[in-house]
Amino acid sequence: MILQVVCGPDRHDLYIPDDYESQDDAASCASENEGPWTVLRLKHEVEKVTQMAPASQRIIHRGKTLLGDNVLLSALKIRNGDKLMVLGKRVEADTDETYKKLVGVERGTIASLHQKAHELMEELRGLESGYLTSEQTQESLNKLGKRLRLFSEECMRALMTLDAVDLTGVDTSETQRNINREKRKTLVQNVQELLRHHDALEDRRVQLSTERST
User: Fold this and answer.
1) Which CATH architecture has domain 97-213?
2) Is the dihedral angle over the CA atoms 77, 83, 89, 93 positive or is it negative?
3) Residue ranges of E strands in 135-211
4) Surface-to-core class of residue 111, CB atoms within 10 Å of its CB (0-12 exposed, 13-18 middle, 19+ buried)
5) Nearest to 42 by CA among 91, 82, 99
6) Where is the BAG domain positioned along the sequence (predicted)?
7) CATH topology of domain 2-87
8) Cα separation of 67 and 77, whole Å?
């Protein structure tokens, strides 16, 4: 469905998958690490078109403010063509160096990790399909295990990079500091979810290895 986002004089079309309600089960979305469609996830989508950080957004739908970041969109009866009024302070992404660093990590390192997570999942699914011989499967599972370890290490390095970002710039307003702090918190949670996804894949890999060796 398409929602109309109104932010001041600007209007943007925001696409939400028609099957978003089926994604209410977070486990079903683990491969893309996106999780269920909640108010918080909606805010992150709104950020992409408005340059307004989730922490500073106030979204109004049919005259009511959307409250509770963990509330599912399916419970809010949002329909195709609905209008969302967005109030708040835009992020000064072009001038705030800290925010630019965080966005750089998001678009570079974290985006790459998401792609790798998807590729690892697809590879494991292929092995689970049973097209290879037991010997070929074991060899491939061992190689996959090494790639999973490297993936975990990359996630840990991403967390260290985020932790090293200085949020206390003397020329940064308190409002912008809060925005930067919320942005980093979101990115950290994102990477932590990738690590949980890694653990789930590793468990499946070990289980498959055990099954094929018996």
Assistant:
1) Up-down Bundle (1.20)
2) positive
3) none
4) exposed
5) 82
6) 113-202
7) Ubiquitin-like (UB roll) (3.10.20)
8) 14
Task: Provide the β-strand partners of residue 59.
Answer: 86
Q: Give all strands (DSSP E) within 105-191, no chain letters.
A: none
pLDDT digits (tens, 9 = 90+) for 59-116: 999 999 998 888 888 888 888 889 999 998 776 655 788 988 998 999 899 999 999 9
Helix (H, G, I), strand (E, B), or coil: what is residue 65? strand
Sheet with strand 2-7: strands edge to edge: 10-15, 2-7, 83-87, 58-61, 64-65
Runs of H (alpha helix) within 38-105: 39-50, 97-105
Q: Smallest Cα–Cα separation from 73: which of 23, 14, 15?
A: 23
What DSSP state is assigned to residue 145? H
Asked if 4 and 14 touch (Cβ cutoff 8 Å), the reply is yes
State the Cα–Cα distance between residues 204 and 210, nearest whole angstrom: 10
